[in-house]
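Design job #97: recover the sequence.
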C-alpha cells in the first residue's frame, strides 16, 4: 500500500468501500488521512445513521416491491455508514434471496439482519441467516420436517454460502437437511422464525465424518470450521471489493486473519482495505467485470429458483 495519500485516493476508497460520494464527503475522508479514513469506514458502529428513519419519513411502502427497492436505493445513497450499506448489498448477493420469490415485507427485515451481522463474527452470521424468515421461505426450509427432509437449503448453504462446489457429498446434504428440520414461519407470525420441536428430526446424524444428534446450530458450527469455509468466503470478499483476479498471497493474508480472529469479518476488512490489490488503479471497479460464475449462482440441479 502506497504511503502517499491524495484526494483521488480518498475517492477511490469511497467508491470501493461505499457507492461513491460527493466532493464534500470525499474531502472529509481525505482529511482523516489514509489510515484514519479506513478505520472510520470500518468502525462505523459509533456513527449515527438517520437513513432508516428517513425512509420512514419519505412514506415509502415497504410492503410493495417498488417501495422496498426505493428504500434500499435511498439507504445506499444517503447512509452515513457507506461500508455497512456496501456490505449489506454484498451479503444480499452472497446469502441470496429474491424479491418476489420471498414475501416482499420480509426482505427489509432480512436486509436489516444483514446490516447488523455485516462485519461481525461469521459464525454468528450463519446462526442468524438460517433462521431468517425470508431465507426459510425462499429456500424451502420451512417445509423441512422429520421424515420428509427438504434438501434445498442444506445444498445451498454448502455450495453458495460456506464451502463451494466439490467440498461436500450428497450424504452431507441429506444429513444436514435432517439436522435443519423444525424451523418454519407460521401464517400468524410471518415476520419471525419459529422452531417446532415435533417437526425436528432428533435422530443421530453423520456430517463430514462427525456423528451426533445435530441441530441447525450444530450444522453451522461444522460448516464454519470446515477448512474450505474461510478461503471460500474470503475469496468472495476479495472479488467483491478488489476484482476477479485474486492474488493468492493476498488471499492468504485474509484467511490467516480470519483464523487468528475466529472469523471476525471486521478484522478481515481491515487487512483487505490495506492490500496492494485494493489500491491498484488498474483493478476493475468491484463487480464491473466479475464473471457470473463468481456470484451466488447455483450450479446444481436442485430446486433452487
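Job complete. Output follows.
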Amino acid at each position: 500500500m502506497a504511503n502517499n495519500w491524495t484526494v483521488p485516493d480518498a475517492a477511490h476508497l469511497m467508491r470501493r468501500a461505499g457507492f461513491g460520494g460527493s466532493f464534500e464527503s470525499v474531502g472529509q475522508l481525505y482529511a482523516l488521512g489514509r489510515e484514519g479514513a479506513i478505520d472510520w469506514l470500518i468502525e462505523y458502529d459509533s456513527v449515527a445513521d438517520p437513513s432508516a428513519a428517513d425512509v420512514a419519513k419519505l412514506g415509502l411502502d415497504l410492503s410493495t416491491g417498488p417501495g422496498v427497492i426505493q428504500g434500499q436505493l435511498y439507504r445506499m445513497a444517503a447512509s452515513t455508514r457507506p461500508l455497512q450499506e456496501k456490505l449489506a448489498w454484498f451479503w444480499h448477493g452472497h446469502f441470496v434471496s429474491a424479491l418476489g420469490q420471498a414475501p416482499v415485507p420480509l426482505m427489509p427485515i432480512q436486509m436489516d439482519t444483514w446490516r447488523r451481522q455485516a462485519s461481525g463474527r461469521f459464525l454468528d452470521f450463519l446462526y442468524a441467516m438460517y433462521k431468517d424468515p425470508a431465507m426459510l421461505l425462499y429456500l424451502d426450509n420451512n417445509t423441512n420436517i422429520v421424515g420428509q427432509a427438504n434438501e434445498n437449503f442444506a445444498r445451498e448453504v454448502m455450495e453458495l454460502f460456506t464451502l463451494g462446489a466439490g467440498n461436500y457429498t450428497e450424504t452431507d446434504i441429506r444429513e444436514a437437511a435432517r439436522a435443519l428440520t423444525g424451523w418454519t414461519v407460521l401464517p400468524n407470525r410471518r415476520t419471525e422464525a419459529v422452531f417446532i420441536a415435533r417437526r425436528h428430526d432428533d435422530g443421530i446424524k453423520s456430517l463430514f465424518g462427525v456423528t451426533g444428534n445435530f441441530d441447525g446450530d450444530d450444522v453451522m458450527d461444522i460448516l464454519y470450521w470446515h477448512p474450505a469455509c474461510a478461503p471460500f468466503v474470503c475469496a468472495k470478499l476479495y472479488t467483491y471489493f478488489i476484482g476477479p483476479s485474486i492474488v493468492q498471497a493476498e488471499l492468504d493474508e485474509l484467511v490467516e486473519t480470519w483464523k487468528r480472529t475466529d472469523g471476525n469479518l471486521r478484522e478481515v476488512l481491515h487487512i483487505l482495505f490495506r492490500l496492494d490489490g485494493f489500491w491498484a488503479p488498474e483493478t476493475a471497479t468491484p463487480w464491473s467485470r466479475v464473471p457470473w460464475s463468481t456470484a451466488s449462482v447455483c450450479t446444481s440441479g436442485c430446486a433452487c429458483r
